[in-house]
Amino acid sequence: xxxGARLEELRKTAQLTQQQMADIVGTSKQYVGRLEKGLxxxxxxxxxxxxxxxxxxxxxxxxxxxxPRNATGATPSQPERxxxxxxxxxxxxxxxxxDFTGDPPEWxxxxxxxxxxxxxxxxxxxxxxxxxxxxxxxxxxxxxRGAQDAEGQIRGxxxxxxx
Length: 163
What we know:
This protein is mainly alpha-helical and 163 residues long.
């Protein structure tokens, strides 16, 4: 299923018009139509983030179809202690991404962006070091933009992931 098909499914399930869908993120009806028809395969990452938040779905699922559909995922039966090293690495990675893209620094508290950064850190290892932060930032940017990562093409991350 393409990004456009996932967006169209969300829109139709919510009984929204293309114009109403566009209004959620401040774009045009034509832009939404082009996405749904598959004419635009790499939508604006900010729009994807806003749609994911609006519909309560995972930004990763919306952009790539991977992972759980719901933003919160499964709730464990017992409370688990958060992995603070991964949380710290996620914040560091997201801060580097925001600096790199020139996006507002207050987006560091955006739940969907932080969730996406956490997924990148979890996939490639909890350690974000000087020699791999730029590569991990590129992975994060691709996830936010909705592009797929090339497996094993990220310099410096295999050791962090233990592989």
